[in-house]
Amino acid sequence: MISLDGEYDQNISSYPIIPSDFFGDMESSWKGRVKRIHLEEAFAEVEKAAEALSLAVTEDFLPIVSRIKATIAPFGGPRGEILYAREHEAVWFKGKRFAPTVWAGTPGEEQIKQLRPAVDSKGKKVGEEWFTTPKVEDALARYHEAGAKVKARVLELLRELSAELQIKINVLVFASMVLVIAKALFAHDIKPLDRVDGMIINGLSPYWFDVAQGSAVQNTVDMRSLFLLTGPNGGGKSSLLRSICAAALLGICGFMVPAESAMIPHFDSIMLHMKSYDSPADGKSSFQMKYAEEQKQQRGHVLPVVL
């Protein structure tokens, strides 16, 4: 019901005369959610309504816009264009000083006479520069009605599908886990230890930050031996070290790594040592606690990270 592979007939409606944002806002919430075959008539009705709206705008607004563009006037002359009033979910004509001083039957005059001030859902005048026509308003109402019907039907189908799948939720969760594990294993390219020269991580990001919102900085790490990380307070040293350790641990466990790509060798152990505190109950100072923790490090192929 919801697999859309191979379906190319659910693109957002598009007409040159209508601002693209209008159809995107109106249809993106329901198009592509279910297969069209389940709601063929409802989809077709939306397409017919969108075409009728485009025709109404072309017949009532375009001659006025063409008339304004053909008018050669100094600064302060007539202005007019077809715009999307997002707040009112409408496509209207916005202009000023476009009415002729003398009516001479020239192109566009008949359409200008049909214009009336645009009003909101409460019948209040939107502004002095927004205009519409009865034909455009009827086409808008038809389009919104068709869109509301198909959106309601899409939600109804999804609710029915959700109810049917509820009894199989355990199977779905298990299948999802298997899929994630299989994807992680497939993404891993296991090489002999003697062919792995150090640890290389590209596009490493702190997994607890959202990169899309710009709250994290991606880093590239090429660690082939001991390296010293320096920087000012609050510069991200601790976050980078924790990210490196998390990537190394996840990688050797066979899980996904929070990076674009990574080459991680096998480590006998991973040590992340942050700031130590004293232990008055044990009679140990902070230096003694730090020294005692460092004594626990084991020999072997170790990734020591100390801050």
Automatic annotation (TrEMBL):
UniProt cross-references to SUPFAM superfamilies, sorted A to Z: P-loop containing nucleoside triphosphate hydrolases
InterPro entries attached to this UniProt entry: DNA_mismatch_repair_MutS_C, MtDNA_mismatch_repair_MutS, P-loop_NTPase
GO molecular function: ATP binding; DNA binding
Keywords: ATP-binding, DNA-binding, Nucleotide-binding
Domain of life: Eukaryota
Cross-referenced Pfam families: MutS_V
Stretches assigned to the DNA mismatch repair proteins mutS family domain: 228-294
Transmembrane in keyword set: no
Entry-linked PANTHER family: MUTL PROTEIN ISOFORM 1
The protein, known as: DNA mismatch repair proteins mutS family domain-containing protein
Source organism (scientific name): Ilex paraguariensis (yerba mate)
Lineage of source species: Eukaryota, Viridiplantae, Streptophyta, Embryophyta, Tracheophyta
